[in-house]
UniProtKB/TrEMBL annotation:
Keyword Amino-acid biosynthesis: no
Record's protein name: HTH araC/xylS-type domain-containing protein
Molecular functions (GO terms): DNA-binding transcription factor activity; sequence-specific DNA binding
Pfam families noted in UniProt: HTH_18 (PF12833)
PANTHER family: ARAC-FAMILY TRANSCRIPTIONAL REGULATOR, TRANSCRIPTIONAL REGULATOR MTLR
Domain HTH araC/xylS-type as annotated: residue spans: 188-286
Keywords recorded for this protein, A-Z: DNA-binding, Transcription, Transcription regulation
Keyword set includes Iron: no
């Protein structure tokens, strides 16, 4: 099954959609859409595929996904309801909205800066584990709220999510288009250089030279901004690219390792396991078994 573009366009009389039944038909489809997505799992569990990340979800988890981020939800058989009754249809609540639905600069207002920062992070997908009950109630209430309170409920839910300290960023940096990165000119130059050259044998010193910094100053700057070393960041980029290759084509793992910038298979396997939590062969099998095919650059 190829990556599918799903139409989440809101009806003319509303600016965004809220549903507790939408995933009856699309929960098992590898897809993407232009809208941001807030999805709360209230009484079910399963496996989630977001970008190049695979993991579990359980009841009480909430996810925030950025636009055009490929994803799929596979519900566990033990919690799946084949023919849900009316009172059982609130197991999952999904909200879809364009970032510009309140105007192109709405979320850039000072009062909404925490939400704006959260939405930038959501371009890689965010999981909020075991969200407090009062936040889940706000999300669930949107299903039956009148239009005004539904709008206020969305803003309040995003605000509450932005306050949560416990969250997990899902996709690796290698899954993010460099045009989505920070607007700072120095960071932009760094990201552009790394994304253009990560398949080659590059080092922190090469990047430092490219942006006109000495190596030690660059290392301190990079670690302060990214909260990780340049080597760790570069490995994440390479593994993210390798994940795409494993998803999209029948290429042997050795070729993918060298094509992603690693100079030996042993280091590739070690870094892949450290970053994704699974071996390359097992990762590829997970996607093959679920009939997922993601084409790089497909819009």
């Amino acid at each position: 099954m190829k990556l599918q573009l799903l139409n989440r366009t809101s009806p003319e009389h509303v600016s965004f959609t809220v549903s507790d039944t939408i995933y009856n038909s699309s929960i098992g489809i590898w897809h993407y859409h232009a809208e941001f997505e807030v999805i709360a799992f209230l009484s079910n569990s399963g496996t989630r595929f977001v970008g190049d990340s695979i993991g579990k979800w359980v009841s009480g988890d909430v996810f925030l996904l950025g636009k055009n981020l490929p994803h799929m939800w596979l519900e566990d058989e033990s919690t799946k309801t084949l023919e849900p009754q009316e009172e059982e249809r609130s197991e999952t609540v999904a909200v879809h909205f364009l970032k510009e639905f309140m105007g192109p600069e709405f979320f850039e207002k000072p009062e909404l800066r925490p939400i704006d920062q959260l939405m930038k992070l959501a371009m890689r997908g965010i999981r909020f584990p075991q969200v407090p009950e009062h936040v889940l109630k706000k999300i669930k209430a949107m299903v039956h709220n009148d239009p005004l309170h539904r709008l206020l409920g969305l803003l309040e839910a995003l605000q509450e999510l932005s306050k949560l300290k416990e969250l997990e960023v899902l996709s690796s940096p290698g899954y993010v288009n460099p045009s989505h990165t920070n607007r700072d000119s120095r960071l932009r130059k760094i990201n552009e250089f790394v994304f253009a050259n990560f398949k080659n044998d590059i080092s922190a010193q090469d990047v430092a030279q490219h942006i006109g910094m000495n190596a030690s100053a660059f290392s301190r700057y990079f670690t302060r901004i990214h909260k990780k070393t340049f080597t760790s960041f570069l490995n994440e980029i390479r593994i993210g690219y390798a994940c795409k290759q494993l998803q999209e084509a029948e290429i042997n793992i050795s070729a993918i390792a060298y094509g992603s910038g690693f100079n030996n298979l042993s280091n590739f396997n070690k870094q892949f396991k450290n970053i994704t939590g699974t071996a390359p062969s097992k990762y590829a099998k997970l996607y093959t078994d679920n009939h997922i095919s993601y084409r790089i650059g497909q819009k």
